[in-house]
Design a protein that fits this description.
The protein has 300 residues and is mainly alpha-helical. Helix content is 50%, strand content 6%. The protein has helices at residues 11-25, 37-47, 52-65, 69-74, 77-83, 91-106, 115-118, 126-135, 146-155, 163-169, 176-189, 232-245, 253-260, 269-281; strands at 226-227, 230-231, 251-252, 285-290, 293-298. Helix 9 (146-155) crosses helix 11 (176-189). The radius of gyration is 22 Å and the shape is globular. The chain starts with 10 loop residues before the first helix and ends with a strand.
């Protein structure tokens, strides 16, 4: 006989338990102590593809260096890329600067609060637009990031693949900020991908998936393109790091190749050129001809 419930959890009870759990278990994160739209946006963009512990190291330094949209908009791309050091996925820093310029020029320096306007800004997808609308502007909108999607899929199996519709259906009328934060927190700390801690979960008695998620390695990652077993994303990061440390004269192709890949050879030349072209397309680096050779440096 199964001890697991088979019916859909009752929404009011589910909300009560998760909100009560959050009140005593929420991590002390700096972006939860502010309603400043600039700071919340920066934290959300940082958290898009970087772990919380790494973001915590960088967040304060970044907002001390760039205190507002105005200051960020005035900075050069190279300055912003340098300040982004260690966060990975450097395109985000360039898009943030572009976004800051749009906010300064078209919105008088104030981030728009409407989801449809936020969605028009560079680097802002559905999740980030909703997160900013909720956390900075107090709007009653659902959220479904990876963590929330996982929690909802386990609590409501068989309700279809769209976590947004479930998030919308169970969204409370009040305490929406706390509710969205609580769902994310539950997914990040208890209902994790590989090893959910069902024994510590506030909704274990209501969850049809409790104790049924076998411990497994996260093998669901897409196969990434790369070289010698190392993903291109890592090489892109290495190139940016190398150019960050270089002077404004920049570096040549071979120099960069040897700096980022052991045993770099002529056979790697075409691959490196493709990587560099991608970085230039993303606005992270610039190339120029010097005599017969090409020199690369961080975008200005
Ligand atoms: Fe996730 Fe387990 Fe809690 Fe269900 S009981 S929500 S599977 S941690």
């Amino acid at each position: 006989m199964s001890l697991r419930p088979t019916v859909r959890p009752a929404t009011p009870q589910l909300r009560r338990r998760i909100l009560a759990w959050y009140q005593t278990n929420a991590r002390n994160l700096p972006w939860r102590k502010t309603k400043n739209p600039y700071r919340i946006l920066i934290s959300e963009v940082m958290l898009q593809q970087t772990q919380v512990t790494r973001v915590l190291e960088k967040y304060h330094r970044f907002i001390r260096r760039f205190t507002s949209f105005e200051v960020l908009a005035r900075a050069s791309a190279a300055e912003v890329i340098r300040a982004w050091s260690g966060m990975g996925y450097n395109n985000r820093s360039v898009r943030l600067r572009e976004l800051a310029r749009i906010v300064r020029d078209r919105f008088n320096g104030r981030l728009p609060s409407r989801v449809d306007e936020l969605l028009l800004l560079p680097g802002i997808g559905r999740y980030t637009a909703h997160a900013v609308a909720c956390f900075a502007f107090g709007q009653r909108v659902p959220l479904a990031d990876t963590n929330i999607a996982r929690v909802l899929a386990r609590l409501f199996p068989g309700e279809g693949p769209d976590p947004w519709s479930i998030a919308d259906r169970i969204l409370p009328r009040r305490h929406v900020y706390e509710w969205n934060q609580a769902l994310m927190e539950l997914g990040a700390t208890i209902c994790t991908a590989a090893r959910p801690k069902c024994t510590s979960c506030p909704v274990v008695r209501m969850c049809p998936s409790a104790f049924s998620i076998a411990a497994r390695k996260a093998t669901l990652h897409k196969k990434e393109r790369g070289r010698n077993g190392i993903p291109n994303r890592i090489y892109r990061g290495r190139i940016i790091e190398l150019l960050r440390k270089s002077n404004s004269r920049g570096r040549g192709l071979m120099d960069i190749g040897r700096g980022v890949k052991p045993n770099f050879s002529a056979a790697d030349h075409k691959w490196l050129v493709t990587l560099l072209a991608g970085l230039e397309r993303d606005g992270l680096i610039q190339s120029r001809n010097r005599g017969n050779s090409v020199v690369l440096r961080l975008a200005s």
